[in-house]
Amino acid sequence: MPFEFIFHSRAARLALVMTLIVGIALADWKVNADVPFGFAYLLPIVLAGGLLNRWYVVLIAALCALLAELFDGLTWSMPSGITRDFLYVTAFTGIGLFAAEVTARRKAAAAHLRNLNRENHARREAEEQLEHLVESSPVAIVTLDAEGSILLANDAAHRLFGLPAGTLTGTGITPYLPLLANVPHPGEGRQSFRTMMQCKGMRRDGEAFLADVWFSTYPTSAGPRMAAMIVDASEDFRDREQTSLEQLLLGSRILVSAVSHEIRNICGAISVVHENLSRDSTLAHHSDFEALGTLTQALKRIAAMDLRDRSAVITSIDLHSFFEELMILLRPSLQDEEIRAIWTLPEGLPAVLADHHSLMQVFLNLAQNSRRALAGHEGALFSLSAQASAGRVQIAVADNGPGVENPAHLFRPFEHSAKSTGLGLYLSRALLRSFHGNLRYEPSSEGALFIVDLAADPENQA
User: Fold this and answer.
1) Going along 37-149, which residue ranges are E strands?
2) Is 0.85 topped by the overall pTM?
3) Which residue ranges does the record assign to the Histidine kinase domain (predicted)?
């Protein structure tokens, strides 16, 4: 309404309505009866319609009709008076209700417009933040249509594929990630995908790399779409393979050392027998007997080769973080076997000096032994606890299984009574000793108990 720009107070506008009604009534009373002022009441009624609810509008319309009838100076009679009053009330009420409805709709439209502006502003801010996040992300992000054409690609995607900025949009993904172009898009009878895959990627210059791809497919009004995040996993793959190779070589050295030790023992026994037989004059100068002695000495020299590993990488390891990683690896298998796990790691546990991968292999081997021992055991329990003393950290790995029948046969390679090769505990202890640790078995009233003894890091205490 035009007066809203002048009167911002609702009370002031109501005062204006009453002033207009009183003024019109006075003017109608003073002016000649031949000039009726009843139509002038339309203005305050229109103003009232924008301020009051419908019942108050009806009451004001009735009041204005009464004032018009009283002061217009026209003679009132039954047929004409009733008709005139009815017209007054109807006209004033209709105009007032119309003004009220228009005002209500205008306010609703204004509120809706404000909400739209607020939502548009919030949407623009969210889009700007999302665009900034995508563009500044170190992870390559692309969106594709149903034909495999790239709709959006950030700077990291261009760097990953070795392309100038802005040149990926509109091109196909097939030359760079062929498997991604073969993913079915959502459609009638097809489900959406939200998963991860590892595949081969290609750069513009033809260089291949290993790609980890997280992608999802989704339908839109413009057709099916796919969003994908791509990471070059080649370096992680090389590190993983290098670590696996180092662990294989380390285990192989320890295994060969164990075999060499056994061969040396046998060769020593053969040498003693050969020396005793050499006193027999009939064999002393026999060529085959001399060849047997030569072969025995050669085999003994081969077995005496120093195959100990000197390449173990000893670092400072935080045991809390280490056992969090171990729990991530063990939890699924323990849950599948319905084995309850208890971890007791006190606060302030010092860091230890060890090779991370070798230490992980030791605990995985001990856990695997406990899993085999606890198979089918009711109330199966696997526990791990640690304590520190005198510059060392002792970690107890225990279970409530049937225990060890012959503890004296533990840590012997190629033990006949072992369920597999008998190398697990032998290799575990050898790995620990390579970084000044140790593994021992302790008798327990229930199940098996192994102690992993590690050297604490004096320069990195928790």
Assistant:
1) 140-144
2) no
3) 258-458
- Strand order, beta sheet including 223-232: 150-153, 140-144, 223-232, 208-220, 194-202
Instruction: Identify whether residues 279 and 351 lie together within a single domain.
Output: no
pLDDT of 114-146, one tens digit each? Answer: 999 999 999 999 888 888 888 888 999 999 988
Note the pLDDT tens digit of each residue in 74-112. Answer: 666 667 667 666 777 777 777 777 777 787 888 888 899
Residue 149 is classified by DSSP as B
- Burial class of residue 452 in the structure, from the number of CB atoms within 10 Å of its CB (0-12 exposed, 13-18 middle, 19+ buried): buried
* Stretch 225-237: mean pLDDT: 87
The two beta strands, 381-389 and 340-344, are: parallel
Kindly give the interhelix angle for 42-49 and 78-136, rounded to the nearest 10 degrees: 40
Task: Tell me, yes or no, whether 248 and 267 share the same domain.
Answer: yes
Q: What are phi and psi of 38, to 5 degrees?
A: -60, -35
265 & 354 share domain: no
Q: Would residue 126 count as lying in a domain?
A: no
User: Does 69 lie in the same domain as 23?
Assistant: yes
Farthest-apart Cα atoms in the chain, separation: 168
pLDDT tens sequence across 61-70? 777 777 776 7
Q: How many CA atoms lie within 13 A of 196 on its CB side?
A: 7
Claim to verify: residue 262 and residue 218 sit in the same structural domain: no
Residue 140 DSSP SS3: strand
The answer to whether residues 43 and 161 belong to one domain is no
pLDDT score of 3 more than 50:
no
- Domain that residue 175 falls in: 140-232
Note whether residue 344 is domain-resident.
yes
Does the CA dihedral 132-135-138-144 come out positive or negative? Answer: positive
Secondary structure, 3-state, 226-249: EEEEEEECHHHHHHHHHHHHHHHH
Contact 228, 137 (CB under 8 A): no
Tens-place pLDDT, residues 404-418 = 877 777 777 655 555
Name the nearest CA neighbour of 180 among 224, 209, 141, 148: 148
**Cβ within 8 Å of residue 374, ≥6 positions away:** 337, 339, 380, 381, 382, 399, 400, 401
What is the spatial distance between Cα 176 and Cα 178, in angstroms, rounded to a whole number?
A: 6
Same domain, 451 and 332: yes
